[in-house]
């Protein structure tokens, strides 16, 4: 019985964390492309802002990806 309840919690958590990981990955890609496209025409202030956004999204992708992996492992272990 504990296995099923843990699985019921793990699967929606996996979906939620996967969604947030992919969303931040998409935003990271957009910011990176904007930096590369406009790097010669931006002011230093704009560049610093975009670099801070890029770093923020990198951290979010790593954190959400870690939670995604952990919930996948928990769901898999409960399934066995």
Structure description:
- It contains two helices and no strands.
- It has one domain (2-79).
- The chain has helices at residues 2-38, 44-79.
- The chain is rod-shaped, with a radius of gyration of 18 Å.
- Helix 1 runs antiparallel to helix 2.
- The chain is an all-alpha fold and 80 residues long.
**Largest beta-sheet characterization:** none
The structure class reads mainly alpha
What share of residues is helical?
over 70%
Count of alpha and pi helical runs: 2
Summarize the structure.
The protein has helices at residues 2-38, 44-79.
Using brief descriptors, characterize the structure shown.
91% helix, 2 helices, 80 residues, mainly alpha, 0% strand
How are the SSEs placed, and which strands pair?
Layout: H1 2-38, H2 44-79
Helix pairs in contact: 1-2
């Amino acid at each position: 019985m504990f296995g099923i309840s843990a699985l019921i919690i793990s699967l929606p958590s996996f979906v939620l964390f996967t969604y947030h990981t992919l969303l931040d990955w998409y935003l990271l890609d957009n910011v990176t492309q904007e930096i590369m496209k406009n790097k010669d025409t931006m002011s230093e202030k704009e560049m610093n802002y975009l670099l801070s956004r890029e770093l923020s999204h990198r951290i979010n992708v790593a954190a959400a990806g870690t939670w995604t992996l952990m919930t996948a492992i928990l769901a898999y272990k409960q399934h066995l």
